Amino acid sequence: MAFKIGIIGAGGIGSIHAAILAKDPRVTLSAFFDTDAARAQATALRFGCKAARTLEELFKESDAAFVCTPNTTHEEIATQVLEAGKHVFSEKPFALNLESATRLRDRVNRSKLVFQLGHNRRFAPVYKVLRGAIDKNELLPLSVHAKMNRGELVNPPWVWNAKLTGGFLYETPVHMFDLMTFFFGKVAWVEVAARAHEHHELDDFSILLSFQSGLQATMKTFAHASWQFPFERFEVYGKHATYETFEMERISFTNGLETRTTTYDFSLASMHEKWGYVEEDRLFVDALEGKSPAPVTADDGYNVVELIEACYRSAREEARVPLGTLVTKH
Ligand SMILES: NC(=O)c1ccc[n+]([C@@H]2O[C@H](COP(=O)([O-])OP(=O)(O)OC[C@H]3O[C@@H](n4cnc5c(N)ncnc54)[C@H](O)[C@@H]3O)[C@@H](O)[C@H]2O)c1
Questions:
Q1: Does the beta carbon of 55 lie inside 6 Å of ligand 1?
Q2: Going by C-beta distance under 8 Å and a sequence separation of 6 or more, which residues neighbour residue 131?
Q3: Would you say the CB of residue 12 lies under 6 angstroms from ligand 1?
Q4: Is the pTM of this model over 0.85?
Q5: How far is the CA of 108 from the centre of ligand 1 (A)?
Q6: 3-class secondary structure, 116
Q7: SS3 state at 302
Q8: H-type helices in the chain, by residue range?
Q9: Do residues 55 and 80 touch, judged by C-beta distance below 8 A?
Q10: I want to staple 68 with a disulfide (CB 3.0 to 4.6 A). Which of 10, 14, 145, 208 is the partner?
Q11: 10-residue block means of pLDDT along the chain (330 residues)?
């Protein structure tokens, strides 16, 4: 029997997940729900499933639901899905402040349902190569520099509005914070300088992260850079070693002086694969089957929210902020 999966939010990312899930023989797409009923209807038609008129109607038809709505709604809708006894895949960000993150993490951890968070970058082939090199001790990271720009805060139409995104760091840079902890472990403290250029919100950040291991990383993120490549990049240095990523297209590395450079090029793969969406969705269905636990947990989501809140506080107070001491909303 196939798992019946409903999609809440029939926009950009909801359609991406639907396209991937529709190809998995273990899944039947049950329904779309969207507050824009016409959009739900049109998307449901495209994927040959129902447009639910209410969330309850979607729950009746589904074993699990994907939460693909704007950032401010994630905690509330994910909680409703859990209350209905259904498994959850929630898009990032997990939550937009520590109080909300704590409530959702505790609610998830009390339940026996599958919960997975959409930190898709972990499953992008370039980042799997990087993480694999660290796991196999081929690379011992000693120093890190990273950047993640956005071209604009124009599309989708709500991304310019910090009241809806939670702040620029909760939009696209949230992925970098997840990768930082995924690759390098727990952060001990952050120091951040930030400025606002447009829309009256901080949109240009210079971030210094110090990890519990002693490793230090710098990260730049700017919201209005145009989409000139590469807008997303890691440079990880070991002893006479450099691993550098170019978007999610390529990774090049050299291990040693006067030796060759190896490049893995994934540019011919589909965007859904290159960005990690195909694998994250497959792993969610594996978790529904009980084959393996969901790979990105509520605790992971909480840790990223804590890190982002620490960055906002450091920028505001112009001070070094240790992790684990935060109680306020930015
Ligand atoms: N992991 C990724 O790479 C990735 C990529 C894009 C978006 N996202 C995240 O996915 C979420 C959706 O982004 P998007 O780009 O698809 O946005 P979008 O605007 O294209 O789609 C969102 C949809 O949700 C609907 N909606 C709004 N409030 C709703 C509610 N309360 N109940 C039901 N439907 C509601 C809207 O009508 C819209 O159709 C955001 O949180 C975003 O951060 C993640």
A1: no
A2: 122, 182, 183
A3: yes
A4: yes
A5: 21
A6: strand
A7: helix
A8: 12-21, 37-47, 55-60, 74-83, 98-110, 125-135, 162-165, 174-184, 271-274, 277-289, 298-317
A9: yes
A10: 14
A11: 96 98 98 98 98 98 97 97 98 97 97 97 98 97 97 90 93 97 97 93 97 98 94 97 98 95 98 98 98 98 98 97 70
Three-state secondary structure call for residue 20: helix
Atom of ligand 1 nearest to the CA of 119: 1
Q: What pLDDT was estimated at residue 330?
A: 47
Of all helices (H) and strands (E), which one includes residue 226? none
**DSSP-derived 3-state class of residue 103:** helix
Round to whole Å and give the CA distance between 129 and 2.
32
Q: How far apart are CA 64 and CA 59, in angstroms?
A: 8
pLDDT tens digit sequence for 292-320? 999 999 999 999 999 999 999 999 999 99
Q: Which residue has the tokens 């349902």?
A: 113
| Phi, then psi, of 124 in degrees rounded to 5 | -70, 135
At 178, list the tokens.
Answer: 């997840």
CB 88 within 8 A of CB 82: yes
Closest residue by Cα to atom 30, ligand 1, is: 35
Report how far ligand 1's centroid is from the alpha carbon of 165 (Å). 10
177 and 210 Cβ atoms separated by less than 8 Å = no
**Gap between the Cα atoms of 194 and 162, Å rounded:** 15
Q: Which two tokens stand for residue 98?
A: 């520590």
Task: Give the largest CA-CA distance in the chain.
Answer: 64
Closest CA to 156 of 232, 69, 96, 226: 69
- Rounded to the nearest 10 degrees, what angle do helices 12-21 and 37-47 cross at? 20
- Residue whose structure tokens are 């519990």: 212
The b-or-e profile of 50-79 (16+ CB within 10 A means b, else e) is bbbeebebbbebbbbbbbbbbbbbbbebbb
Q: Does the Cβ of 91 fall within 6 Å of ligand 1? A: yes
With beta carbons less than 8 A apart as the criterion, state whether 312 and 170 touch.
no
